[in-house]
Each structure stands twice: as structure tokens, then as C-alpha cells.
Amino acid sequence: MEKFLQYKDLSYFYQTKESEIHALNNVNFFVEKNTFASLVGPSGCGKTTMLSLTAGLLEPSSGQILLDGKKIEKNDSRIGYMFQRDHLFEWRTIWQNIILGLEIQKKHKDVKTLAFAEELLKKYDLYAFKNKKPRQLSGGMRQRVALIRTLVLNPSLLLLDEPFSALDFQTRLNVCDDVYEIIKSEQKTALLVTHDISEALSMSDKIIILSARPATVKKELQIEFSGSTPLKKREDENFGKYFELIWRNLS
User: Which residue among 3, 70, 129, 237 is buried most deeply as judged by most CB within 10 Å?
Assistant: First the structure.
């Protein structure tokens, strides 16, 4: 069992004008390579703080986060981040949006990397739209573009911060399937933060339930379903049992 992403005695404090806030307290868990994990917990418990620490945007007050045995650094190139909004620039074409990260890293003239970007567009049915503007795409297609823009940088770990929250329910179900398929196909390790228990269940191999602030790990669940896609997993006879178990641990 390879502990690819590991949280060891992680704690985090931050200051407000009134007091010091203890956000995370001695968090310990790990995520195996090429698996999909989700963080759930009460509102305000520190889920997004966990992602910010994992991305290297914040420094732990104590403890450490290891990725493939090495400490995570600020702006760590091994990590890709997918936000709540797709953050596509409307004045740039789909292709120009996808290579934005490559431009920032001065890799936009690398023939091999550009070929990889084109390959991803073709593989996930977006190549015909490469010269379109984001406003010409559906919400689901925009999220696929945002994910491909992240994958082009070839991260080892993907962090997903409520990436489907801006979508209507029907689109959300379809996009969950799309994103799940892409992540599994590209053999990436992923950590999702969501308030949606059903979403976490349908996509995850493991769910980590956090307590109220200061957050610690309340329970870990290994998830096993017969379905091969998030939509099919929702039809599994054990889906409701898992949901109830998670719900009880959130209250």
C-alpha cells in the first residue's frame, strides 16, 4: 500500500483581529497512488484550508505533507489545482486557454508538450473547438477544458475544490462522469473537496470525514461499488448505506 500523498500530524493556526483560530488539529491520513479521495466535513471545518496547504499556498503550523515521499513546496509543479470556477479567459481561444500554464512556465514552444496538449484535446472530443471562445462552449465542456489545461502541465496530484458547484444538477452528473473518466484514464491521483456527499461517494475510492473545527480526521471510509462510472455507482444497492453512514458522522 503506497502512501503517495501523506498528512503527518498536520496542524494549522491563523490570526484574526480578535484571536488565534485553530483550524486543523493533528490531521493524519494518506492517499494511495492513482486513486481518487474526497474530503467531506461540516461547513467551515477547514476543507479548503487543507487544499491550500496541500497546494503549497499555505505553510503548516506543525506537521508535514509529503507527496511521493518529498515535502510539498510553494508553487510545487507536481500539483495541479482545479477551482470552483473554470477561470477560462473569454478573450482567448480554447487552445490559448489550454496552453496558458505552458506560457507561464515558458514551455509553450516545446514541441513535445504542445503535441501532448493536442493529443488531450483529440482524446476528449474538444479538438474541433480549439479555435472557439469559451462562451461558445457548454458548462460541461468548459470544465473539461479547465481540466485539460491542468493536465497539460503533467502534475502527479490533482486538487479539486468544488469544481462542479457552478453547474446545474443534470450537467453536474454528466461532468462528474467526464472528469472521473479523464482522471482515471490519465492515471492521476486526485483529492476532491465537496459539500455534496453523493458526489464524493460516486467518485471516490476513499472518503476522509473531518470533524468540526479544529478539524481532525473523524473517520476514513474505503468505498467499493459495482458501477464503473460515477453515475452507475449511484445505482449501487449500497450507495444509500454509505450515504447514511457519512451523514451520521457529519452531524
Answer: 129
Q: How far is CA 147 from the centre of its chain?
A: 10
Q: Domain ranges for the chain, please list them.
A: 1-75+193-251
Facing residues of 26 across strands? none
Helices (H), 75-214: 94-98, 100-104, 111-123, 139-151, 169-185, 197-203
Q: Give the pLDDT of residue 7.
A: 96
Phi, psi angle pair for 231, to nearest 5°: -65, -40
- What are the backbone dihedrals phi and psi of residue 206, each rounded to the nearest 5 degrees, phi first? -145, 140
Q: With a threshold of 0.85, does the pTM exceed it? A: yes
Which CATH number is 1-75+193-251 given?
Answer: 3.40.50.300
Per-residue pLDDT tens for 58-72?
A: 999 999 999 999 999
The amino acid present at 231, given as its one-letter code, is L
Cα 60 to Cα 9: distance, rounded to the nearest angstrom? 10
Give residues with Cβ within 8 angstroms of 45, minimum separation 6. 210, 211, 212, 213, 215
Cα 162 from Cα 157, distance rounded (Å): 16
Q: Is the pLDDT of residue 14 over 90?
A: no
d(C-alpha 140, C-alpha 37), whole Å: 22
Phi, psi angles (nearest 5°) of residue 194: -155, 155
Q: In angstroms, how far is CA 25 from the centroid of its own chain? A: 22
